[in-house]
Write a structure and sequence with these properties.
295 residues, alpha/beta, Rossmann fold, eight-stranded mixed sheet, 8 strands, globular, binds NADP nicotinamide-adenine-dinucleotide phosphate
Amino acid sequence: MADQNGSGQLMRGKICLVTGATSGIGAVTARELARMGATVVLVARNAAKGAATAEHIRVTTGNSAVDVLLADLTSQRQIRQLADEFMGRYEHLHVLVNNAGAVYEQRQESVDGIELTLALNHLSYFMLTNLLQDRLLASAPARVVNVSSDAHRMATLNFDDLQARRKYRAFRAYSQSKLANILFTIELAERLHGTGVTANALHPGLVASGFGQNNSGFINLLFGTLLRPFSRTAEQGAKTAIYLASSPEVADTTGQYFTDKRPISPSAAARDRGAARRLWEGSEALTSLAVPVPG
Ligand SMILES: NC(=O)c1ccc[n+]([C@@H]2O[C@H](COP(=O)([O-])OP(=O)(O)OC[C@H]3O[C@@H](n4cnc5c(N)ncnc54)[C@H](OP(=O)(O)O)[C@@H]3O)[C@@H](O)[C@H]2O)c1
């Protein structure tokens, strides 16, 4: 089935894994990659929601190659299980879209005792990508697409209190995690240089989605009501993720930050190579992963 943009079966033969695929930007990204002929694997934390999203994608795109894997991405054990299950089912991974993310009004900790924003928004990207590194390398050309945010511009990484134990502010924790997405992307691109696996990050714009709705107070009101008139649709918000996942125009582009399908400069803090390396080492320690440098 041809897609609305005329990109036909551009992704035929490609296997794509999309996290946060049951709502908002991730759901549209997964659907449009399926429409382009890809085999799409949705990561969901809720089995019924995952099954319903997969069925909706099959029906609307005519592509039956839509699979679901379950994981709560705040749990390191479940992320490892997810990676193992994926590798058990698929020999290749051509596109990994790290998209699942949230903001939490109150400070919470994951089952691993890690502040929840950091655990979900950054460490799940870091872990899943690195656990699947061999599949990506074996599938080159392959792409990693990390959904970040322009909220990163408000942040610097506080390495002395990365998990906000001393003082928690929801938006500070969120913007730091989105800064971490870009630092991770740039470091990953550097490490994968010359392997045929690219890594890029993006800002989707302000998007009317389920974002913020896991909270009951002001954040729920802000994203669910107050900001809605200024928000774009999930379809509009997903365009850059879909572009980075599929367009031949960016086949060789790596280590960049995009918005509206164009590379833009992220903040100075996001271009700090020392911070990127320090974050990588800190993330390895927090996840008990020692990631081999390819090649
Ligand atoms: N919306 C915006 O204005 C905006 C702006 C800039 C950047 N972003 C970024 O865009 C990305 C997607 O957000 P969205 O706007 O599409 O939000 P959304 O509609 O709330 O979707 C978030 C997705 O992440 C999943 N998720 C949340 N917690 C999870 C967990 N513990 N384990 C596994 N999956 C989990 C959700 O699953 P459920 O369906 O089960 O809840 C959902 O599929 C995020 O990284 C966000 O930071 C959003």
